[in-house]
Amino acid sequence: MHPDKLLVALDFGNRVEMEEKLSRVARTLNPSPIQQISLLAQSSNAINLAEGFPDFPAPPHIKDAAISAINSDFNQYRHVQGICDCLAIKMKKEHGLDVDALTDIAICCGQTEAFAAAVLATIDRGDEVLLFDPSYETYETCIALAGGVPVRVPLDPPHWTLDPDKLMKAATDRTKAIVLNSPQNPTGKVFSKDELEAIAGACCDMDWLAITDEVYEHITFDMEKHTSLASLPGMQERTIITSSLSKTFSVTGWRLGWAIAPACIASAIRNIHIKITDSAPAPFQEAAVTALRSPSTYFESLRREYEVKRDYIVKMLVGLGFQIHFKPQGSIFVFAELPKKCLLSDIDFASELIKQTGVAAVPGCGFFHKNLHSNELSEDNQSYQNRYIRFAFCKSDATLRDAAEKMGEFVDHNGHLKLFHSL
Ligand SMILES: Cc1ncc(COP(=O)(O)O)c(C=O)c1O
Question: Does residue 92 sit in the same domain as residue 204?
């Protein structure tokens, strides 16, 4: 099925004339497979394992702080310096980085705005920016909006390994920056020490900037630990770190994030942020100070609880017949491979999964460099870019159990999803 067919029909009226009014870059933006699946999931009231937001409550101590800030009438534009002070302490303690709380931090509306402002602050028209393939889909759009050119560096399945030769092959004299997201969406990969050293070495040798997305910094499993690329030799002066409260504190709707960068870049990001949104939500800035001061036990139990959820969903999906060669080392996602016998593309599989079982997950193709459409699939049906389905496990135990039960109703005598046999 062509992805556009997933969209709820909208009446655009004089669509053609109005499209001519759009900017060139806006005309290139299409709804992603994730948005399309989410629309379908909403309209069919499906259990949502598609989107990366928790369906369980946020921690009471930070909710109390936000309520107290609202009751104290923190209602106006605001910059809460306490966030920067906490972040400077955190960066020293966790990564050994000396960060000046007065000059090196910009508070933004989530990592999303911090990333967009970082790109707008550093990327000129025609600059090339390296992105790993697969990666979170927002980066490419931000780079395109800035006039930059995203250039993909493929990670090798099934473990999504970085081959340093492929990294260098993607580089040109127009390469300005590289984007690193670790722990990674969609694969759950935590980049290894060797891989981080290869990236840092290339940045230093080629004089690239690095823009990191560390939103899953506190969600790692087994013996994995998050290392900030900026902590490698020679990297702090060329790295823009972006992160947020969203995932660590289960508050994706609070829109509270930050960028940490050398002073002149942080200052440019602050200026752009002020022009675009002025300030992050005042009450949630107050609550962020409380969040960032959470005891270590909070972060330990976050990790433990997510590890249990990861183990549950991996076991469930393997039982249903998915192939999981790579167990997530971090993040809130599992990138499960369709079995060889399944002849459906990822897009068709995800839409059928909603229709037949009432469970929503995301087709993996949106995270790769091109969105393959079904009419291209006959030639290349086994291309790995259309063989993955992303499941989000940042859901309550009850939701995960419901999803398991629903899918469990549609299995063959081996316990595998019947859907794998569809054509
Ligand atoms: C890798 C990654 N970065 C950033 C975000 C969004 O972060 P924020 O809510 O802070 O804008 C997401 C959300 O799913 C994500 O997966």
Answer: yes
Binding site membership of 136 for ligand 1 (Cβ less than 6 Å): yes
Q: Is the pLDDT at 410 greater than 90, yes or no? A: yes
Q: Cα(111) to centroid of ligand 1, in Å?
A: 6
Closest CA to 374 of 394, 351, 393: 351
What is the reported pLDDT for 13? 56
Q: Is 213 in the pocket of ligand 1 (CB under 6 A)?
A: yes
Quick check: CB of 246 below 6 Å from ligand 1? yes
For 13-27, give one letter per residue: b (16+ CB within 10 A) or e: eeeeeeeeeeeeeee
CATH number for 408: 3.90.1150.10
The Cα 342–Cα 255 span in angstroms is 39
Q: How confident is the model over 61-96, as pLDDT tens digits?
A: 999 999 999 999 999 999 999 999 999 999 999 999
**Beta-bridge partners for 211:** 179, 240
Domain finish residue from 265, 293, 321: 293
Name the residue with tokens 């302490």: 89
Co-location of 104 and 245 in the same domain: yes
Pair 250, 111 in one domain: yes
Q: Is the pTM of this model over 0.85?
A: yes
DSSP string, 41-86: HHHTT-EE-SSS---SPPPHHHHHHHHHHHHTT--S----HHHHHH
CATH code at position 88? 3.40.640.10
Q: Is the same domain home to 30 and 110?
A: no
Atom of ligand 1 nearest to the CA of 333: 16
What's the structural domain count of the chain?
A: 2
Structural domain boundaries enclosing 7: 3-57+297-421
> Could you tell me if 131 and 232 lie in one domain?
yes
Of 293, 318, 346, which residue constitutes the final position of a domain?
293
Whether 211 and 177 have beta carbons less than 8 Å apart is answered as yes
Question: Ligand 1 centre and the CA of 342: distance in Å?
Answer: 31
Cα dist from 142 to 54, 122, 137, whole Å:
25, 12, 9
The tens digit of pLDDT for each residue in 367-390 reads 998 743 443 444 444 589 999 999
Beta bridge partners of 213: 181, 242
Q: Does ligand 1 lie within 6 Å of residue 242's CB atom?
A: no
Do 38 and 70 sit in the same domain of this protein? Answer: no
Pair (263, 395) in one structural domain: no
